[in-house]
From TrEMBL:
Xref: PANTHER family: HTH-TYPE TRANSCRIPTIONAL REGULATOR, HTH-TYPE TRANSCRIPTIONAL REGULATOR CYSL
Single GO term (MF): DNA-binding transcription factor activity
Listed name of the protein: LysR family transcriptional regulator
SUPFAM superfamilies: Periplasmic binding protein-like II, Winged helix' DNA-binding domain
Protein's UniProt keywords contain tRNA processing: no
Species whose genome carries this gene: Paenibacillus chitinolyticus
Lineage start: Bacteria, Bacillati, Bacillota, Bacilli, Bacillales
């Protein structure tokens, strides 16, 4: 079927690699090669130049890729509209989520969604906030769930939930033995996420707002690593309560408090301004909009 050929072709064009496309589509690499050969025979043109390191599209390939994305989108819309006539939600849903959401919030949302709509093919990718927004803009994701606000002209954002951020420290850190004082945070060692993450952006804003000097810092590419580093005594950090709730309960790490302040950030949905609006996506958007009611906030806020 020509649609199958185009779907494989688009995957190779996006992955720039036959084996990665095969893995993403859950088919064999020889199967991918056969689809591409069939397309090249169909059009009588070379579509891709293959090398050991990557795949490069020819001029004909670039032209076909742009048209293939439109054809696949129209095909999916038609299939879903026909399914809607039978009151069945089907199709595909590609979600990009930043780390905190992808690891601690999205699984709960998807468990309920998949239970009610088992015929929807769901693919989720976890990346930092900047990468998720870029994925939405490039049409790799139907929707992105990120920490903070996206600054991109061709996407629309919609807040869906507030996320509490807390200052944490190793249980034997000197700051845990006194009441919170902003001045005590001067010249401390901090553990950061990488630039581009929503958690790092929030931390940077707070450090600037509180006019803190940083004595030394360590950087990790995941919140899990930041949490483990704090637990091991490397320094203090600012993380979502979702990430550290179990460690707080066990006493592995300590919440420093914030002098009566409640530190929060906004979690938002990101979609292309003129993007696809399938039934599967519409239903998921409604699910996300109800997330603040459906999900229990993990633990009370210490005073």
């Amino acid at each position: 079927m020509i649609v199958d050929h185009l779907r494989v072709f688009a995957a190779v064009a996006e992955q720039r690699h036959f084996s990665r496309a095969a893995e993403a589509l859950n088919i064999s690499q020889p199967g991918v090669s056969q689809h591409i050969r069939n397309l090249e025979q169909e059009f009588g043109a070379k579509l891709m130049i293959r090398s050991p390191k990557q795949v490069k599209l020819t001029e004909a390939g670039e032209l076909l890729y742009a048209r293939a994305k439109r054809i696949l989108r129209l095909y999916e819309e038609a299939r879903q509209e026909i399914d809607a006539l039978q009151h069945v939600v089907t199709g595909s849903l590609k979600i990009g989520a930043s780390f905190t959401i992808g690891e601690y919030i999205l699984p709960r949302l998807l468990a309920d969604y998949a239970k009610h709509y088992p015929k929807v093919d769901i693919q989720s990718t976890i990346a930092n906030t900047v990468e998720v927004v870029q994925g939405v803009r490039r049409d790799h994701f139907h929707i992105g769930l990120i920490e903070g606000i996206a600054d991109a002209p061709d996407v629309e954002i919609e807040p869906f939930m507030e996320d509490e951020m807390i200052l944490i420290a190793p249980r034997d850190h000197p700051l845990t033995r006194e009441l919170f004082k902003l001045q005590a945070l001067q010249n401390q060692t901090w553990v950061w996420r990488e630039p581009g993450s929503g958690t790092r952006a929030y931390s940077d804003r707070l450090i600037a707002e509180w006019q803190l000097n940083v004595k030394r810092s360590f950087m990790f590419s995941s919140s899990q690593s930041v949490k483990e580093a704090v637990s091991a005594g490397l320094g203090i950090a600012l993380l979502s309560r979702w990430i550290v709730r179990k460690e707080l309960e066990s006493g592995e790490i300590v919440h420093l408090g914030a002098g009566g302040r409640r530190l929060t950030r906004t979690l938002t949905m990101v979609r292309r301004t003129a993007g696809e609006n399938s039934k599967a996506l519409e239903v998921f958007v409604q699910k996300v909009r109800g997330a603040h009611e459906a999900m229990q906030v993990p633990g009370p806020t210490p005073s």
